[in-house]
Amino acid sequence: MNASELQPIEQFLQTHAPFDVLSTALIARCAREMTIGYYAKASAFVEFDPVNPKLYLVRSGAFEVRDPQGVLVDRVAEGECFGFSTLLSGEKVVNKVAILEDGLVYHIPQALFTDLRSQNRQFDTFFTRAFAQRLRNEHKFKAKDLTTTSRITNLMSQTPISIEANASVQQAAKLMRDHRVSSVLVLHDQQLVGILTDRDLRNRVLAEGLDGQASVDKVMTKQPQTVASNALVFEAMLLMSEHNIHHLPVVDNQQAKGMITSTDILRSQSSQPLLLIGEIDRQASIERLIHVSKQIPVLLQNLISADARAEEIGRVLTSVTDALTRRLIVLNQQLLGKAPMAFCWLAFGSQGRQDQVACSDQDNGLLLAHEPDEFAAAYFDKLTHAVCKGLDQCGYIYCPGDIMAQNPQWRLSLQQWQQKFKKWVMSPEPKALMHASIFFDMRAVFGPQTLFDELQDSVMSHTKDNDIFLAGMAGNSLQQTPPLGFFRKFVLERDGSEVKGMDLKHKGSALINDIARVYALSAGIKEVNTAKRIRALMDANIINRKDALNLADAHEFIAHMRLANQGYQANHNLVVSNYLKPQDLSSLLRHQLRDAFKVVHDAQSGLKLKFTRSF
Amino acid sequence: MVNHLWLKSRFWLDSLSKQQGSHERHLIEYQQSLTQQFTRTIYDADLMAIDLEMTGLDPMKDQIISIGLVPISKGTIPLVKAQHLMISIDGSVGQSATVHGIVDHQLQDALPVDAAMEWLLKATQGHILVAHHAPMDMAFIQQSLQNVFGQRLLLPFIDTLMIEKSRYLRQHGQLVEGCVRLGQSRERYHLPVYAGHNALIDAIACAELFLAQVSALGGSTQIKCHELVGLSK
Do A102 and B84 count as a contact with CB atoms less than 8 A apart? Predict the structure, then answer.
């Protein structure tokens, strides 16, 4: 029989690590000697054959590996393997593999697995490393911290600067000057043979009295230490301190991919949130503040690659925005003089809810203790314009809807704000309400809390148990529904163009924000952060425990997917957006996302029943 | 049902054994090897997924051009036992080449139809055949047996399309066009989409669908063969 007749199966192997490193002949052999099994969710666990251990390669479906104590060890989806621990250790199977989603699995018998490992070193390394990783990362699914979990790929220079080994040191020095780098990779026949650093130029060229024509390979550091792009930053730090070096070429499959320096690592450390906020508070000029704010996107990337909880990421990023806003107010007050009266800087929308992420725009306003006279009006006009401009320069672009403190419409006294809210609440025109919803997620970022409390108390007194208003808000929030049907649809539009994907913000997170807001306003709960609102609603017995926990989980999961997707987009130089393509997901994630959307759907039904039934 | 199948087989065997040629002995052996399968569970039975590629849909006029076979044993599909045979035909592959991706020059190593039928009987002896839309494949096999041996067989088979049809009807009340085709049926069980389209890949695809169907029906150890088997004369 012709080997290529199993082509779809071979193709699958060819496109999934580590099988992708095998030769065509080995792939064909592997496909030939596998057996195919089907695992149904109904049977709960994979039954292992103790006599003939195998490697299990998941073709479709989703699985979970748990240790005898029931702790999650690994999640396995399409293209991933389980069973290798037993094959490598020779010990009997102790972990249990739960079937989360029906699936097709390729079985690779032990003899074949051993043979493939002996015939291909990379294939072997993949599994021994995965095995070691699993032993190390017993707590992989628990909280992670930044240095130990972010990977080299996120920090390294993407375009490596390199030079041929027979070039002169002068050429090398020129190249380094032109690219403003402190080291270059030295290549011969496309292979990395060494690196040349500032220190080499000083110690081995200048100090030795060589001239600029000396060839690079005479003075370079030969066979340098290298690191793989998927290694942990932590591992790179260890290598550097062990060998007392500051530059590490990043090498994958013998190909130089880039360079990582101790400075890169240092810089990534300084964009940790506490350090960044500290730095913001120390800056004495607006220019410096703008400069420091350039680290915010790096912070976001770090948090995402560290797999932090989405809720934490939102809180951390928002606290940076808050710090920046406060610092801008203080610095501008130093220029303009003391304020003529007490005031609060209000944050609305995502900043109010503390769930800011990438590409946020400004939504803010000013709350004045009382009606300003002409002088005070002029003062606050200048102050707000300066702060909003500062925020814009720091990356928080002007609000397209002009909901900003610099707009006199949103720079009001306590009494005016109270009237404004009263008007929204008492005569709820659906359309006006829709635009007003972000105002109900408000928080004071600067100014006396007592002043803000006065405003919030009066708002709550109007919204609490106000059936007509709540019905209007609920009705608005039911205009959008989660994309449950999307999973079944085609990946291409009828005209052949690619579909944009699922809008995780407007059809996911925003819906949960809406639901939590309506409930919170109905019960007079002052929290504005969605997770906190849900928790408060659960504690007050307004939403039952199970539904509340489900909704909070769904909120976290959807927000997490959105952040992870944006992190991926940013890493791959794609336009950062809220759209996720379901076909890019593993079936496990797809499965979980579908569950999350179902929770949103159910919560919407509950909202409808509770608030809109009589209208 | 068991008795009924068994009786029918017996009767067929008796009528065959009255004629005494080598072909007939061959066919008797083949037939005998099947009867013991009926009472076994799907898990323990010897099954063989089969798919044929033909030049058209009419068994009287059209010809088989390739056969894909893969056994189903103990709830798994051992690819090492998968087989793919090309059959040389009269005339040209013609229109259907665009569907199967088989062009004439690939058929040069092919067996003539009489050798191919002997090969088929040997390869599938002792196995109940499993096919998607099995009556069609059975009709082509019977016609070829008739042409080659002058004799049809009593062929038990399992039809994954029939299984799917009754399952779909149970769940949805009525059928939708195309809903029980191989691809659509597989989709419902989250089975992967195979880009390739030849007799062997389709036989594998059918075998996988069968495993999925059986586990949806309660598992391979819970169902006996005769519950799913149909007969072709």
Answer: no
Q: Is residue B179 part of a domain?
A: yes
Q: How many Å lie between the alpha carbon of B131 and the closest alpha carbon of chain A? A: 17
Is-contact A107 A37, C-beta < 8 A?
yes
The predicted pLDDT at position B130 comes to 97
Could you say which DSSP state residue A45 is in? Answer: B
Domain that holds residue B186: 40-232
Tell me which residue of A20, A33, A97, A18 sits closest to A65, measured CA to CA.
Answer: A97
pLDDT at A321 over 80: yes
- With tokens 């449950």, the residue in question is A484
* Chain B contact set for A40 (CB, 8 A): 212, 215-216, 219
A296/A281 Cα distance (integer angstroms) = 15
What's the complex ipTM? 0.85
- B103 has a chain A CB within 8 A of its CB: no
Question: Worst-scoring range by mean pLDDT, A99-108, A169-178, B93-102?
Answer: B93-102
The reply to whether residue B195 touches residue A60, judged by beta carbons under 8 angstroms, is: no
Q: What per-residue confidence (pLDDT) applies to A592?
A: 75
The total of structural domains in chain B comes to 1
For residue A40, give the chain B residue with the closest CA: B215
- Annotation: CATH topology of A149-259: CBS-domain (3.10.580)
C-beta separation of A113 from A123 below 8 A: no
pLDDT digits (tens, 9 = 90+) for A407-452: 999 999 999 999 999 988 887 677 777 778 889 999 999 999 999 9
CATH number, domain with residue B226 = 3.30.420.10
Across A528-588, the runs of DSSP E, i.e. the strands, are 579-580
Task: Yes or no: say if B76 and B207 are a contact pair by the CB < 8 Å rule.
Answer: no
**CA distance, residue A11 to nearest chain B CA (Å):** 10
- C-alpha A501/C-alpha A525 separation (Å) is 35
C-alpha torsion sign, points A21, A26, A27, A30: negative
CATH number among 1.20.1260.10, 3.40.50.300, 3.30.565.10, 2.60.120.10, domain A3-142: 2.60.120.10
Has residue B27 been placed in a domain? no
Q: Give the residue from chain B lying closest to A33, CA to CA.
A: B80
Assess if CATH 3.30.460.10 describes domain A271-463.
yes
pLDDT value at position A282?
A: 80
Q: Give φ, ψ of B52 to 5 degrees.
A: -115, 145
Question: According to the model, what pLDDT value does residue A4 have?
Answer: 58
pLDDT of residue A267: 63
Among candidates A267, A269, A221, which has minimal Cα distance to A245? Answer: A221
Distance of CA A393 to the CA centre of its chain: 24
The correct CATH number of A475-611 out of 1.20.120.330, 3.30.200.20, 1.10.12.10, 3.30.360.10 is 1.20.120.330
In a domain, B5, yes or no: no
Domain ranges within chain A, ordered by starting residue: 3-142, 149-259, 271-463, 475-611
Lowest mean pLDDT segment, chosen from A1-5, A41-45, A474-478, B196-200? A1-5
